[in-house]
Amino acid sequence: MSYKFLLFDLDHTLLDFDLAEDVALRLLLEEAGVADVEAYRDYYVPMNKAMWQDLTLGKISKADLIATRFAKLFAHFGQKVDGPYFAQRYQEFLSQQGQVFSGAKELLTELTARDYRLLAATNGVTYIQKGRLAQSGLSPYFEKIFISDEMGYHKPEKAFYDSIQATVADFQVERALMIGDSLMADILGGNNANIDTAWFNPESLANTSIARPTYTVQSYADLLRIL
């Protein structure tokens, strides 16, 4: 297949979200005067991941996720806090984090040289994602940046991809490839939109979902080979 339009997920694909989250969370907990930062972190990370999965499945709204996750975290340790305030502070810390995976800039440089049209396609909060992209230095590589918070749709909804198609000049579904780490957001989203997909799977995880990737790649080198 001769691809032209490469749709890149950001977190866990190009941006090192785990590191960004860890730094931002530690800054927040330290500011809040938490004594056992590690205990709070160990509870927050899987709880937050589960809440984002529920968002992907349509079980909760993004507004509920953002407003309640820190109230739930502190409630687990017997404390009552202002959830929206803590969410705002966390977002401010997170928006300042621009850590990227090793080789990400080199990958995008190579793809740009090959004359691919690069598009960012991410679920997330607008000012956080824009802030992190600005800090990362990756923004100039992308022709357009699509963020679910701005669009009103999120992956894996077909409407997310329909909006991209309607916005990008000369976009051709049959020449597009969605690249991302999430089976239930990126790969299922591509399936829903009839767009080919590359599952970025560096840890060689088993696919136990209904999503069906066109390709599975374990590294950026693998991706370059299929292109």
End-to-end distance:
8 Å
> In CATH terms, what is the architecture of the largest domain?
3-Layer(aba) Sandwich
CATH topology of the largest domain: Rossmann fold
Q: Name the average pLDDT.
A: 96
Sum up the overall morphology in one term.
globular
- State the assembly state of the protein chains: single chain
Radius of gyration: 18 Å
CATH superfamily membership of the largest domain: HAD superfamily/HAD-like
N to C succession of SSEs: EHHHHHEHEHHEHEEH
Please summarize the sheet with the most strands. 6 strands, parallel
Strand tally, please?
6
Q: Helix/strand/pairing class, anyone?
A: alpha/beta
Number of helices, where a helix is a run of at least 4 consecutive DSSP H or I residues = 10
- Share of residues in helices: 40-55%
Low-confidence stretches: none
Major sheet strand order:
3-2-1-4-5-6
The CATH class of the largest domain: Alpha Beta
Beta-strand percent range? 5-15%
| Total count of domains | 2
Main attributes of the structure:
single chain; alpha/beta; Rossmann fold; DNA polymerase, domain 1; 10 helices; 6 strands; about 10% strand
Describe, in plain words, how this protein is organized in 3D.
By secondary structure, the protein is α/β, with parallel strands linked by helices. 50% of the residues lie in helices and 12% in strands. The chain has 2 domains: 5-15 and 100-226, 3-Layer(aba) Sandwich (Rossmann fold), CATH 3.40.50; 17-94, DNA polymerase, domain 1, CATH 1.10.150.240. Strands 3-2-1-4-5-6 form a 6-stranded parallel beta sheet, sandwiched between helices. β4 (176-180), α9 (183-192) and β5 (196-200) form a beta-alpha-beta unit. α1 packs across α4. The protein is globular. The termini are close together.
